Amino acid sequence: MQGIKEKIRAIPDYPKPGIMFRDITTLLQDARGFRKTVDEMVQPLAGTRIDKVVGIEARGFILGGAIAHQLSIGFVPVRKRGKLPWKTRSQEYQLEYGTDAMEIHVDAVQPNENILIVDDLIATGGTAEAAIKLIRAHQGNVIGCSFIVDLPELGGRKKLEALGVQVLSLCEFDGH
Ligand code: AMP
Fold first, then answer.
1. Which helix (H) or strand (E) holds 145?
2. 0.90 cut: is pTM over it?
3. Which whole number is the average pLDDT over 94-115?
């Protein structure tokens, strides 16, 4: 079987010129690729108590849902501003131009719960940092952030490690 990295499609200049979009749909549509991805995203944490998975909109929902099911634990969505229906806590984060905000339901994470954050890719780390702040604001313990892809040149891993969070990834690509 091809490795996980080889199953990820690269789309140049999407969604705008200069960006190499790492498209994981080609990995997820492959039954063995999807299963291997889910297994490897949690394998390093075997033996660690995890109470909930937090998935970041939108591809983090696909992976986070599968991982939560695999671990028989609950799933919590972190969504873009205005999407969650109940009372929320908001955390702004920096975009290339301007700011946006991620939100979590106020009753989604309880004090001292061990939380694993999941998304498909870490670039600058801004989105994951917002998720970490939301969980910590509810006194949850972020025990790790798990991604399929790391783009190390964009510094996201270092940013999260500076916050004291363990970062897991299955593969890396050069550039943006
Ligand atoms: P960041 O907050 O800069 O770490 O960006 C991470 C978020 O943006 C993730 O939810 C990714 O899905 C998405 N993203 C950023 N860069 C790319 C890329 N080159 N290919 C695919 N998704 C990306």
1. strand 141-150
2. yes
3. 95
